[in-house]
Amino acid sequence: MSAPSPTPSFIAYVDESGDEGFVFNPDGSGSSRWFVLSAAVVRQANDLQMVSCLKEVRAVLGK
């Protein structure tokens, strides 16, 4: 019988954009009508690759 494989560990990167306050005024002012919540989940073993990938994406986008 072989030994059980180790349980993988994951890292989650979570980001939000928008306003969860939801104040909509008749004149159109107030909160954004959009609220976006996103996440990227990667294996801990691949975390450094994710960081490198994000650096490349930011460079391409000029950020």
Question: What would your notes on this structure say?
Answer:
This protein has 63 residues and is of the alpha+beta class. 24% of the residues lie in helices and 29% in strands. It has one helix and two strands, in the order ββα. Strands 1-2 form a two-stranded antiparallel sheet. It is elongated, with a radius of gyration of 19 Å. 0% of the residues are buried.
Architecture blueprint of SSEs:
Layout: E1 10-18, E2 35-43, H1 47-61
Antiparallel strand pairs: 1-2
Main β-sheet, spatial strand arrangement: 1-2
Number of helices: 1
Amount of beta strand: 25-35%
State the helical fraction: 10-25%
* SSE pattern: EEH
Mean pLDDT: 85
Q: Main β-sheet, in a few words?
A: 2 strands, antiparallel
Oligomer: single chain
Number of strands: 2
Distance between the amino and carboxyl termini: 52 Å
Global shape: elongated
| Gyration radius, rounded | 19 Å
**Which consecutive residue ranges, at least 5 long each, have pLDDT under 50?**
none
Structural class category:
alpha+beta
Summarize the structure.
This protein is α+β, with helices and mostly antiparallel strands and 63 residues long.
Q: What attributes characterize this protein structure?
A:
1 helix; single chain; 24% helix; 63 residues; elongated; alpha+beta
